[in-house]
Fold:
Amino acid sequence: MNTKQLFVDALAPVLAEHLSADEILNLIEVPKDTSHGDLAFPVFQLARVFRKAPAQIAADLVTELDQTNFEAMVAVGPYINVSLKRESVGAALVQEVMAAGSVYGDVNIGEGRNMTIDFSSPNIAKPMSMGHLRSTVIGNAIANIAAKVNYKPVRINHLGDWGTQFGKLIVAYKMWGDDAVIAADPVKELVKLYVDFHEVAEEKPELEEEARAAFKRLEDGDEEMIRLWTWFKDESLAEFAKVYKMLNIGFDSFNGEAFYNDKMQPIIDELEEKGITTVNEGATIVDLEELNLPPALIKKSDGATLYVTRDLAAANYRKENYDFAKNVYVVGNEQSAHFKQLKAVLTKLGREWADDIVHVPFGLITLDGKKLSTRKGKIVLLEEVLKEAVDLALEQITAKNPDLVNKEEVAHQVGVGAVIFHDLKTERMNSFDFNLADIVQFEGETGPYVQYTYARSKSIIRKYGKEITGDLANLTFDLTDDYSWEIVKKLIDYPRIIENAIERFEPSQVAKYAVSLAQLFNKYYGNTRILEENDQLDARLALVKAMTIVLKDALNLLGIEAPEEM
Ligand code: ARG
Structure:
C-alpha cells in the first residue's frame, strides 16, 4: 500500500488534462513537520495553465477534490496539505501485513533471474580477519534482499587460494616449517611463516624470486607443491567453516581462484587473437590508458597468471553457468581499480554482459582507530571477536532476565547479531571504528536494541494470549493517536525501503529502517497501555503483530536472528 497513491487518486481525475498520475506522484511531498499533515502537493506547476496565483489554485482545488480518504485537506499558500484518515489507512495496512506475513514488502524486480554475488572470499593460509567481516555480512545481506525482490541469489565464495603468496608460503615452510607445530595450530603457524617470509625477504630479496618459481611449479602441477597447497587449504577451510557457522552464512559455491587455473588459457588466447594484448618487458598486458586505468597484467614474463586473469575466467564461467542478470562483487574499495579493469577488458572482448558487473565497495573498518592488517602480524581474529561479543551479550542477558531458559542460544543470537548490525547500519562506503563494548549495548542504535524491541513486542502478544490472525475483515481499526499512526506510516514505507536497498546495494537502508521502526514502537509502548481491556485492545494488538512481522523480516534480511524472548 502506498499512502501517496491515495492522494494521487484524489488529484488525478481533477488534473487529468494537465498532469499524469506519475507526475502527480512525483510532486507529492512528505512534510518534515507532521503538524502540516501527512502529505503535501505543491501547485506551482499549474500556475501557467490555470493563469492564477498558486495560492488561489490551491484554495480552488481543495473544493473540487474527493475527500473520502482524508481527515483534513487544507490549502496553505501554494500547497494542498492533507491528513489521511488514519482508521481506514491503518486497517488496510494491518490487514495487508498480516495476510502477507513475511512476504510483505516483497517486490518483483529480479523476475526470477540469477544474481551471482561474490562475497567474503578470504585468502587461505590466513585467518579470517575483521577485515573480511564487512564483505561477509554485506554480501549475505545483499543476497537475502536480492531474494526478497525475486532474484535468485547465487552465493559465491571466491577463495583466494592461488597466487604468488603460496609460493612465498611454500618457500618459508621449506626453510622454517615444523609439521608438528603446524598441526597443533595450523593457520596461526602459517601466518607466522608468511610474516617471517616478508621480514627476511626485506634483507634477502632473492627469496621473492624463489617464491615466484615455487608458485610457477604449483601452477604447473608439481606433485609436492600441490600436496603442500592442498594441506594448507584444507586446514584454512576448516577454520573458515567455524566462522561461517557462527554467522549462520552459507555459500552455493567455493570455487576460488585455483578453480580457474585450467580455465584461463582460452581467454588469454582470445585476448591475443583479437589483438587486445601487448607485450611489455616480456609480460602480457592490456593497455587501458585511454580509460585512465593502469594496464591489466594478464601474464608475467615467466608465464604465471594473475589475479585479474583468474577473475576474467571466473566472470566468463559465471555467465556460462548461471546466466546472471547481475554479477556482483562485494569487495573493499581498495580494489575498485581492479574491477574497473575487469569490466574494461571484458568490454574489449565484446562481452555485452560486462555492463551487468557491479562492484559493491565498502570502506575500512578500524579497531580503536587503527587499520587492520595481516602483513605486519597485527591480526584481529573474527572468530574471537564474535566469541567475545557472545560473552558480553550473555552477561547482559543474565543481568536482565536471569530465568531465561535458552540463555546461551539467545546470547549467541544477540552477540553475533550485534556485530553484524553494527557493520550494516553504517552506509557501506563509510569507514567505522569498532568497539565491542559499545555495540553489544541494549540501548542506542544497536542490534540488541532492535532484537530487544522485537522480544518485548512478542511478550505483549504472549500476554494477550489470543490468536491475532482472527477475523481481519471485521477488525475495527480505530486507532487514531499519533504514536500508532507513526508506526502505520513506517510499515507502509517498508516495500520502498527494500527497493532502495537493492537498487543501491545498500543494506544500511534496512538496518536504519529497523532502528527507526523499533524506536517508534518503543515510543508507542511508553505512551500506551497496550494490554488495557477496552474496545481498542484488538486493534492495538493487530498493530503490534504487524510490527513484529516487519521487524523480524528486516532483521532476517540482515542475517540476524530475532529471539522470541531475551
Ligand atoms: N581474496 C580477495 C581478498 O581477500 C577477495 C576476492 C574478491 N573476489 C574476486 N572475484 N576478486 O582481497
Notes: The two ends are 32 Å apart (CA to CA). Residues 35 and 83 are 9 Å apart (CA to CA).
